[in-house]
Amino acid sequence: MSNNKLKTVRIVGSGLIGTSIGLGLVQRGVSVDMVDSDPQAQSLANDLIGGVGVASPDLVVLAMPTTQLPAVIEVENLLNPQSTFIDVGSVKHEVVLHVESISGLSRRFLPTHPMAGREIGGASSARADLFQGRSWILTPGTEVDSSSRELVLELIAHLGATPIELSALDHDRAVARISHLPQIASSLIAKQLTGTPPEWMELAGQGLRDTTRIAGSDESLWKEIIYSNRNELQQLLINLQNDVQLMIDSLGNPDEIAQLIAQGRAGKALIPGKHGGKAREYFYLPIVIDDKPGQLGAIFNECAAMDVNVEDLNIEHSPGQLSALITLALSQSDAEKLSTHLTSIGWNVHPIRK
Amino acid sequence: MSNNKLKTVRIVGSGLIGTSIGLGLVQRGVSVDMVDSDPQAQSLANDLIGGVGVASPDLVVLAMPTTQLPAVIEVENLLNPQSTFIDVGSVKHEVVLHVESISGLSRRFLPTHPMAGREIGGASSARADLFQGRSWILTPGTEVDSSSRELVLELIAHLGATPIELSALDHDRAVARISHLPQIASSLIAKQLTGTPPEWMELAGQGLRDTTRIAGSDESLWKEIIYSNRNELQQLLINLQNDVQLMIDSLGNPDEIAQLIAQGRAGKALIPGKHGGKAREYFYLPIVIDDKPGQLGAIFNECAAMDVNVEDLNIEHSPGQLSALITLALSQSDAEKLSTHLTSIGWNVHPIRK
Question: Which structural domain range is residue B38 located in?
Answer without folding.
Answer: 8-166
